[in-house]
Design goal:
CATH superfamily of the largest domain: ATP-grasp fold, B domain
Number of strands: 16
Largest sheet: 9 strands, antiparallel
Strand content: 25-35%
CATH architecture of the largest domain: 2-Layer Sandwich
Subunit structure: Homodimer.
CATH class of the largest domain: Alpha Beta
Structural class: alpha+beta
InterPro entries: ATP-grasp (IPR011761), ATP-grasp_carboxylate-amine (IPR003135), ATP_grasp_subdomain_1 (IPR013815), PreATP-grasp_dom_sf (IPR016185), PurK (IPR005875), PurK_C (IPR040686), PurT/PurK_preATP-grasp (IPR054350), Rudment_hybrid_motif (IPR011054)
Family: Belongs to the PurK/PurT family.
Protein name: N5-carboxyaminoimidazole ribonucleotide synthase
Shape: globular
Order of helices and strands: EHEHEHHHEHEEHEEEEEHEEHHEHEEH
Number of helices: 12
Helix content: 25-40%
Oligomer: single chain
Radius of gyration: 21 Å
EC number: 6.3.4.18
Amino acid sequence: MSAPIIAVVGGGQLARMMQEAANALGIHLRVLVESTEASTAQVVPDSPVGQADDEKAVEELVTGAQVLTFEHEHVPNAFLETLPVPVRPAPAALVYAQNKLRMRQVMDKIGAPNPQWAEVASRGELADFASRVGLPLILKTPTGGYDGKGVLKIQDLAEAQDWLDRLEDGQTLLAEEAVPFDKELAVLLARRPSGEVRCWPVVQTIQENGVCSVVLAPAPDLSDQIDQQARELGERIATELDVTGVLAVEMFAVGDGADTKLYVNELAMRPHNSGHWTIEGSITSQFEQHLRAVLDLPLGDTAPVSDGAAMVNLLGSELEEPREAYPRALAEVPEAKVHYYGKGVRPGRKLGHVTVVGADASECARKARRVVDILQGKEK
């Protein structure tokens, strides 16, 4: 029996980490990478070079494959409908991770809790929305934004003028109220085509300049009621949208205790930064689960292996080669697990992440942060 082939679009660190799970399961990954130096190309032997919008490259990628999946959403959706293999998540679901306006519309349709929002294309439309919800506001480009890109917080309408001036005919922006959240949470789950769903513990995410910096698992001081509510919301979204594979639902939590209100922030239909802790912290990692799900295999147990876990992203470094700091970092925190993505160093870039598993998520985060500080050259 030959190994099943999973075709993946995107050569970043997510596909790189899928390869580890694929090795264990004896699955053949074929990944469309942006260049021979891409993070995934360094570890996946079958890595043809091409762009996600190159239809010929994608057609060649799926030849002989059992399924096509993604490590990012920036793919031409209509073209996916023409491919001769199952696409998971399907284009009809993926569009809600590709287009934030479409996502807000469908969240309203299924009764999921949205912030107040509006589609705007002019100063007048933005002013009308601001008169209803107040300032500050959040502006987003409907497509293409990630890790804080394509997001602008405005205190005054004049700050939006440059974005409005750059709109071409037919283009619009998404305007949202600035939710006064107390925490940012993420619900990570997986769903297979047959309908089975498995959910990991709800986590808290902490952002740095719009990029996820720290993940605490499980989310500290979260009531059982809100934990259940968040999981049920994630499962309802996955089922209503017919998502297959891993789904991350980023949420704002407003208030404390039983009075906490949840609002959907964004969706990602792939392994997600909020789930990297699952590699060491859960019986089944998000990467193994995604491969199982897209092949419609029984899903793995998502129970955590300890009472707490934390992941801290390595965002840039003052060192030309952060790995030169391994001796000190690993000696000081021997329980730390370092994942390095093989990327060139530049300010703010996701170079890797560090996970620590233990009895308390906050203490795990302190230890992981210590390792990251050393790898960033902040601890001389």
